[in-house]
Write a structure and sequence with these properties.
Elements (H helix, E strand, L loop, with lengths): L7 E5 L4 E5 L4 E6 L2 E12 L2 E6 L4 E7 L2 E4 L2 E6 L1
Antiparallel strand pairs: 1-2, 1-8, 2-3, 3-4, 4-5, 5-6, 6-7, 7-8
InterPro entries: Atu4866-like_sf (IPR038646), Uncharacterised_Atu4866 (IPR020955)
Protein name: Protein Atu4866
């Protein structure tokens, strides 16, 4: 996964949500000033992404034209 095109930092336009997809199929999400607010694992199949938070919460999303649509949020890749 280390060279997968979706690995990296994804951020909402206001910078409040910072969602990092790690190369080991884990993610780390920050919200506002709260770093590591949510953590868990993920799986990418094509453009579809599934999440399993360590607390048991599940979610999904989709990558469309370089944008991640996840749980009502729009996140863009930060270089």
């Amino acid at each position: 996964m280390a060279d997968h095109p979706y690995v990296g930092m994804w951020v909402t336009d206001d910078g409040y949500i910072r969602h990092e997809l790690l190369p080991n199929n884990r993610y780390d999400e920050a919200r506002g000033e709260r770093e590591s607010a949510y953590q868990g694992r993920y799986r990418v199949t094509g453009q579809y992404i599934e999440y399993w938070d360590d607390t048991g919460f599940t979610a999904d999303g989709e990558f469309i034209d370089g944008v991640l649509y996840h749980a009502g949020m729009v996140l863009r890749r930060r270089q």
